[in-house]
Amino acid sequence: MSINRLIPNICSDRLAESKQFYTELLDFSLAFESDWYVQVISPRAPHMELGFIRRDHELVPEPFRQLPQGMYLTIVVDEVDTVFTKIRAAGLEILQPPQDEFYGQRRMLLCDPNGLLLDVSSPISK
Description:
The strands form 2 sheets. Strands 1-4-3-2 form a 4-stranded mixed sheet, with helices on one face. A 4-stranded mixed sheet has the order 5-8-7-6, covered by helices on one side. It has 2 helices and 8 strands; from the N terminus they run E-H-E-E-E-E-H-E-E-E. The N and C termini lie far apart (39 Å). The protein has helices spanning 15-25, 80-89, and strands at 9-12, 29-33, 37-41, 49-54, 72-76, 94-100, 105-111, 117-123. The protein is α/β, with parallel strands linked by helices. The model has no long low-confidence stretch (mean pLDDT 95).
């Protein structure tokens, strides 16, 4: 067996807002859009994909129709401070502004439109 793709699919009540957030603020490209599912990809690495599925859709088993919880998503970018500037200019809440962490990353924390915790990080230059 070999794994060909990994697509985290986030249950959402806010597909349009999710598409806008990830494409405009985190520079993903729109790969697919319907009334029940949106998929975005990284233009520099198209195998990096995220999906957003309407949480009340029939494909989501009823016991799993929850908003995201108990996890967070890390997105590694070239320069976290550039993302911070875009997020701040958009007037979105920032849980933790960029700061250098002991493990060699500079990171900021915020939530996406679905309430999913995002860790946006960059390697610290040495």
